[in-house]
Amino acid sequence: MTGDIEIRADQRMEDLLALLPGARRTLFASYHVGGCQSCAYRDDETLTEVCDRNDIPVEEAIAALLASHERDQALLIQPSGLQKRLENGEAILLLDIRSREEHDAVRLPGSKFLSQELQNDLFARPPEQPIVLYDHRGRDVLDRCAWFHGHGLKNALALAGGIDAWSQDVDPGVQRYRLELD
């Protein structure tokens, strides 16, 4: 799965994070890099600079990033794949991890806003229930999906490209929008 992804040692962190949405999580989990102010990196730093400063062999970091990316790909469901499963009558819990305001303005039909209360209630449900999490553009949903997996909800998937991809690929009736923070 990672054959089409190329990570270069001279790649800027900003570009690396755009290419691999789970890179921040991987670097922190594997090397405690990027999770707090003392181990932070700048967007304009290269992977080599970050690795050198933290005594990490750059080849090892690239291998960890590629392996993590491959695992992340297994957590994704494409909008067309979700559509087929829903059309086949599969009972999938759709969870919106965006802000309450975004959810109230536009959402996938039948989805629920993931409040803290609902999140706590999920642990009382059968862990086999399929769950699909979505955000705006698929940038943050992998981290939340990995968190769900780590807490035993192994049938959680992340909607690739978020609600924006759903609107473009499946249902243009779901209004697209742009956040000023994007």
**Number of domain modules:** 2
Oligomer: single chain
Kindly provide the radius of gyration, computed on alpha-carbon positions and rounded to a whole number of angstroms: 18 Å
Put simply, the count of helices is 9
Strand content range: 5-15%
How is the largest sheet built, in terms of strand order?
A: 1-5-4-2-3
Shape: globular
Q: What class would the helix/strand composition place it in?
A: alpha/beta
For the record, what CATH class of the largest domain applies? Alpha Beta
Order of helices and strands: HHHHEHEHEHEHEH
Low-confidence stretches: none
Average pLDDT number: 92
**What's the architecture of the largest domain in CATH terms?**
3-Layer(aba) Sandwich
- What percent of residues adopt helix (DSSP H or I)? 40-55%
Q: In CATH terms, what is the fold-level topology of the largest domain?
A: Oxidized Rhodanese, domain 1
* CATH level-four homologous superfamily name of the largest domain: Rhodanese-like domain
What's the N-to-C terminus distance? 28 Å
Say how many strands there are. 5
Largest sheet: 5 strands, parallel
What would your notes on this structure say?
By secondary structure, the protein is α/β, with parallel strands linked by helices. It folds into 2 domains: 2-72, SP0561-like (Orthogonal Bundle); 76-169, Rhodanese-like domain (Oxidized Rhodanese, domain 1, 3-Layer(aba) Sandwich), CATH 3.40.250. The protein is built from 9 helices and 5 strands. The chain has helices at 13-19, 23-31, 47-53, 58-74, 79-87, 100-105, 116-122, 141-150, 162-169; strands spanning 76-77, 93-96, 112-113, 131-134, 156-159. Strands 1-5-4-2-3 form a 5-stranded parallel beta sheet. The mean pLDDT is 92.
